Structure formats: structure tokens, C-alpha cells
Amino acid sequence: MSIAIILFYLLFPAALLYLGTKYSFINKIGIVVFCYVGGLIIGNVNMVPAEMSGIQGDLMGAAILLGIPLVLFSENILKWIKLAKYTFISLLLGVVSVVIMVFLGYYLLRDHIPEAWKVAGMLIGVYTGGTPNLAAIAQALNVDEDMYILTHTVDLAIGAMVLLFLITGAKRLFGSFMKPYKSTGEYSEKESEVMVNDFESYKGFLKKKNIPGILKAFTISLLVFGAGFGMTLLFEGDAKDTAAILTVTTLGILLSLVPFVNKNRNSFQLGMYFIYVFCVIVASKANIMEIFNPDSWEMLMYISIYVAMAMIGSLILHSLLSWALGISTDDFIMTSTALSNSPPFVPVVAAAIKNKEVMIPGMIIGVIGYAIGNYLGVAIAYLLK
Q1: Which pTM value belongs to this model?
Q2: What is the span of the domain harbouring residue 370?
């Protein structure tokens, strides 16, 4: 049975990614949602033997330590420098807004949420980076599986509403008091399409011509994994996981400066596969009856308030700061999308506001978020602790 469960952990996300290339509704709903549902089902119908708990923990750690550097290999710090002045200012304002609202929420709700400092760290990570950062910080801080699933479930629900708002009414609302965008002509539509495909498309991922690149990226990630695992031998307790996560994050960014590593278009997709494996495993460890029974509704309410403060509150604060410093409406919307919903959603919102020129800066901001999210989330969590 244990072997069958391990195979499920590894093959279920792969099957979802394949089906996502055939049926668009899977990607619209979100691969991570299906991963959580699949994991919750097998974990709550007594299919996972109790003695697998240790194996689950090892697999979760391995998935994160392999996935994070692979996601970061697509980084390119040189592209950061090319960001327009106001785009970069908007990024800083977005990060500052999230940090302020997470701090405020922590001091308001810390008496109602167990280990609220860990939740604060996760929220910083997910709203400066995305799911990879949320998963990595949860692993680094040894967050309880039920709390992780509850937080991310609420995040997905509120995030979907915020994304809908960014697609439909955001430009009209924020455009009523923020300055309009002025075209620079810096990025071509072809460049935008190439960068989007680098992030969100798994079509042809396993074609013969891509296999050498996949194997190369995986081999390099194994070396980074070894370094991260080695760091756990130097620390004790929760600090072991924290040291490992920050080590692979740092090495992932440094290796992205090496051209033959950075130009491998398949590394991001492979990294996200491992993140999805992590999501299936952690969901299978969660007790859905404990999360959603009536006795937990009060906790659900407090987590929902905290997530809403972090996401919606930071969006409002970010808009006011952007207005005060003369950031354009489109730059603000792209920054908000990249930070709160991650790079794959940038093209959707760019199309909705009818401005593909801001797509590449938005994607770059999202990648910067992946890079800084782990450091910032862990640092603020321990600061609040």
C-alpha cells in the first residue's frame, strides 16, 4: 500500500499537468486546487497507513528542496535592472503594503490564531511570491498541516475574488484617481508571448528535444538539494528546515546567473511539478473533519480576516501609496497581480486591461517575488516570534 501511495503522490500531479494541456478548465480552476482535493480524499478515507507519516515528511522535504531551486533557475537579475523606474517603485510599494498589513493583522489577531507568527510568514511569502513560497515557508517553519491547508484554502478563495476584480473593475476604479499609463514601446508582443509560455505552458514538455534540458536541470537541482540537506546537519529543531530552505533559495538565485542554467525553459515547469507533489502530500496529512467541523468555524473566521487584511488591505494601501507617488494605473495593477496571484496570472490581467506592454515587467516582478518571498517570509516570522 505504501508504494501505491507514493506512486500516487508522484503521478497524480503529472496526470493533472498532462490533462491541463488537453482541457483548459483544469488550468482555469487551478492545478493546485485539484492537488489539494486529491490529497484530502486519499488522506481522509483511511487509504494512507499511519506508519507512512515519516515517509510523508521526507517526501515533502525532498519535493520542496528540489522544486524551489528549479523555479528560481529561470531568474535573471539582469532583467531586474531593466525595470522601468515607476515599475520598480510600484514593486517596493507593493511589498511594503503587504508587510504593513501582515504586521497589523498579527497584532490584532495573535491571541486568536495559534502560532500566528507562522501564519504571518506564510502570508508574506504567498503575497510576495506565490504557492512555491507558501509551501517552502510552511516547511521551513514546520507549520501544522491543518493550519497550512486552512490558510491556503482561504487564500485561494479570496484570491479568486481579487483576481476577478483585477480583471473586471480594477482599471475603471483605480483609473478614476491614478494617472494613465504612457506607452514606452520597450517590449514587443513576441517577447511577451515567449516569456508567458516559459511560465505557464506544459505543451510538449516531454518531447524528445526537451529531455536533455530536463535532465540537466534536475541534475543541477539534485546538487542544490544535497547542499540544502547538508545544512540540516548543522542545526537542530525547526532551524534545520529553515536553513535548508534558505540555502536552496540562495543557490537557486546564484545559479540563475549562469547562462546555460538560466536559459533552460523547462526548469520552471519541472520545479512547479515538485511543488504540486508537495501540495498533494501535505493535503493527504490534513484532517478535513478537523478543519471544517463547526468547532473550527471560529478559527476559519479569524484566518479569513487575516488573509483578507493581507490581500485586500494591502491592495488598498498599495493603491493609495501608488497614487501619492504618481504610479500609473496599469503599472499598479500589474504589480498587484504579480505579487498577489503570481506570474502565470499576469497575461490574463494584461489582456483584460488591454495592455500587453506591461506583461513582461509584470512577469519579472512575479519572479522577483519568488526570489525574495522565502527570505522575507522567514525573517518576518521570526521577528514577530
Answers
A1: 0.79
A2: 2-384
